[in-house]
Amino acid sequence: MKTVLLLISLFLINTDIYAHGISQEDIQMMIEGGNLRYMWLGATHMLTGYDHLLFLFGVVKGANYSGK
Questions:
Q1: Position 10 in a domain
Q2: How many structural domains comprise the chain?
Q3: Rounded to whole angstroms, how far apart are CA atoms 14 and 30?
């Protein structure tokens, strides 16, 4: 039980697993651009990130499975 709690706490403390790489160009666009540019960068990130696409696939597949 202690091992499980230790692993969970290490997982939650490690911030590297939550971070996505972002280019300096995109950072500059977020700083200098307006709200629309910020939303555009977020949308492209969501549609091109493999982790986000896999999550959406799982949600759709789960919704399909529970509908039967």
A1: no
A2: 1
A3: 25
Q: Is residue 37 part of a domain?
A: yes
| Cα 3 off chain centre by | 27
Contact by Cβ (8 Å): 46, 52: yes
For residue 2, being part of any structural domain is answered with no
Is 10 exposed, middle or buried, given 0-12, 13-18 or 19+ CB atoms closer than 10 A?
exposed
- Residue 60 Cα distances to 23, 42, 51, angstroms: 30, 21, 14
Tell if the pTM clears 0.70, that is, is over it.
Answer: no
- The 10s digit of each residue's pLDDT in 41-65 is 888 888 887 888 888 888 888 887 7
